[in-house]
Amino acid sequence: MSAATDLAEAARHHGAAADDSASRAEAAAVVAAEAAARSAGVYIRALDGMAELHRMCELYERIWRFGDGSMPLSVELMRAMSKAGNYIAGAFDGDELVGACVGFFAPPAHRSLHSHIAGVSPRTRGRSIGFALKVHQRAWALRHGVTEIAWTYDPLVGRNAYFNIGKLGARPVEYLTNFYGPMHDGLNGADETDRLLIEWRLDDPGVVAACAGTPGRFDAAAEEAAGARYALRRSPSGEPLPAAADAPTVLVAVPRDIEGLRATDPACAARWRGAVREVLGGLLAAGGRIRGFDRGDCYIVDTGGL
């Protein structure tokens, strides 16, 4: 099957003609999803049936290397969630499942979806399959009357921060301390599971542009030249260095490779966890707003002079 999405086929089957703004937005989202899948060289569709759900859980095991009893989702639960109409989709490279994403509905009045877990095979990283999955999820959500998707990610993982904030146009809204408790998988190690809660407003113009392939661009050096100050830096040896930063915009660095640091120097990784929790968590709790993330591994936070 050619690289595309099941959403694109559904749109062609039912007719993609749009007679109001909502249907035009849905049609544009389907087009963006199809383009992202084609660019990544995958076909994305809903997963169903026990065999496919087993394949999805096996893929997640290869990505996270979960310990005994720590798999976040069972095949049986996935089967029930699929039957109830939640979002469970996979990306295929030929017959191989190379990525998967799972989300479930929030309370009806919220018109939102919580995207619980998404992962891509290490073999296919660098092809933007994760991006294609999220753009597919957005189109699926809009077709189901959902206007917002939320999820969490580790604020110390710079590539995920850039992906969420830059490539997708989502915005972190809350710092959650040790949100999942101990996980002890191959990526989190023994570190505490602090997370940032993301809100992805699906009709936001920045999100529309990002899903069409125009990511947000954030430049820490330009921000610093305009008066921003670092509240947390990296030392030459890679240690966290907090600093007083009384400015309307502040910069908060993260380690360049927290996953590697957890393996080679877990004590330093723990110091980074505490520093980012205190600085970034404190800024958000006081009303600060994360505006962007520089690819050099630095959050850009508007404080309004807190």
Automatic annotation (TrEMBL):
UniProt superkingdom: Bacteria
A Pfam family recorded for this sequence: Acetyltransf_1
One MF annotation (Gene Ontology) recorded for this entry: acyltransferase activity, transferring groups other than amino-acyl groups
Domain N-acetyltransferase: 42-188
InterPro entries: Acyl_CoA_acyltransferase, GNAT_dom, GNAT_N_AcTrfase_prd
Gene3D superfamilies reported in the protein's UniProt record: 3.40.630.30
Name of the featured protein: N-acetyltransferase domain-containing protein
Species: Actinocatenispora sera
